[in-house]
Amino acid sequence: MAHTNTSPALEASELTKTYPGARGKPRVHALDGLSFAVESGTIFGLLGPNGAGKSTTVKILATLSRADSGVATVAGFDVARHPERVRRAIGFVAQKQVSDPMDTGIENLVLAGRLQGMSGRDAKARAQELLGRFALGDAAGRQVKTYSGGMARKLDVAIGLMHRPQVLFLDEPTTGLDPEARTQMWAELETMARVEQMTVLLTTHYLDEADRLASRLAIVDHGRVVTEGTPEELKNALHGDAVIVELAPTTDLAEALRVMARVDGLSEVVVDGRTLHARADVGAIALPQVLTAFDDAVLRVASATVARPSLDDVYLKHTGHAFTTNSRIAA
Fold first, then answer.
1. Domain residues for 272?
2. Interior/surface letters 111-140, b for 16+ CB within 10 angstroms, e for the rest
3. Domain contains 307
4. Going by C-beta distance under 8 Å and a sequence separation of 6 or more, which residues neighbour residue 223?
5. Domain count, the chain
6. pTM
7. Helix residue spans in 34-175 (DSSP H)
8. How far apart are CA 239 and CA 309, in angstroms?
9. What is the pLDDT of residues 121-154, one digit of tens each?
10. Are residues 170 and 281 in the same domain?
11. Which of 177, 202, 234 is the last residue of a domain?
C-alpha cells in the first residue's frame, strides 16, 4: 500500500550531537543545529567534508544513534519516540559489504526478506524480481565471494530494497567501483528510484554522482547545513566563471595571492593547497590578465583554466576547500 502521509519523508530540525573528546580534550560538536526536509519520492544528496556531520546525521535518522536535542522524523515517524516503526520503513545500504560471502545471492536476499517479516514465498518472489532488475539472475546460485565488486555492490542495494522501504539510505553506493560499474550502478539507482517511488538519502564522495542522481542537495559543514537546493540552483547562484590557477612547486604562495588580489574583476579568491580559485564575471577576459600579472611578477604557473560554475565551485564557496581535499585556507 502506498504511503499517503503528506509530511516530509525525512525531516531534521535543529539537531545537535556532541561526543566526548579524546584524552581529556574538549567535546566534539558533531551536529550544531542541523536542519533540512526531504519531500517524498526524491533523491536527496548529503555532501560535506569528513567530520562535517553527515555520518552522525544518517545514524540519527536510521535510529542507530540519538540526538542530544532537536527532532527528526522518517516516513512521518519520530525517530526517538518510534524507532521500531522507523526501522520497518527504511532500507539501509552501508558503505561496507553487508551480504554473506559464503551464501549465494538469492540466499542473501531471501534471508533479508525473512528478517523483515516477509513470508518465504514472498521473499523468493521479491528476490527473483530484484536479481533480474540488477542483472544478477545468472549469478543467483553462486556464492557471493565469487562476485565482482560491482556485482556485490548491486546485491547490497538489492538487499536494502527487499521489503520495499519507503526511505532508502545509500552510503557511498559506488565507492571502489570502476568507471563502467559506477555508470551501470547510476542507471540502476535512477530506475530504482523511479520504479519503487521511494525517497533516497544519498551520501557520496563523487560530485558527478550527486549532480546526476540527486534532485536536491544539502552541503553540511561544522554540523550545519550551509547551503541547499537543486544542483542547477546551487551552480546558477555562482554568477560568472571560475578561474583556477595551479602554482608551480617553486612559486611563493603568499606572493601569488598578492598578485591575484591586484587583478581587476576577480573576487572570492580561495587557496586550496597550491591551487588558487577565484570568480570573475567573464573568465575569458580575466584569465589573460591573471597570466600577465603572474608573468610580470616572475611567478611560475603550472596550469590555468576557466570554467562555468560546477558543484565543486559551490562546495568550495561554502566550505572553503575543494571537494577532493581537506585543506581550509581562505584568502
1. 238-330
2. bbbeebebeeeebbebbeebbebbebeebb
3. yes
4. 16, 17, 29, 30, 31, 32, 33, 34, 52, 53, 56
5. 2
6. 0.81
7. 54-61, 83-89, 105-115, 120-133, 149-161
8. 8
9. 999 999 999 999 899 999 999 999 999 988 999 9
10. no
11. 234
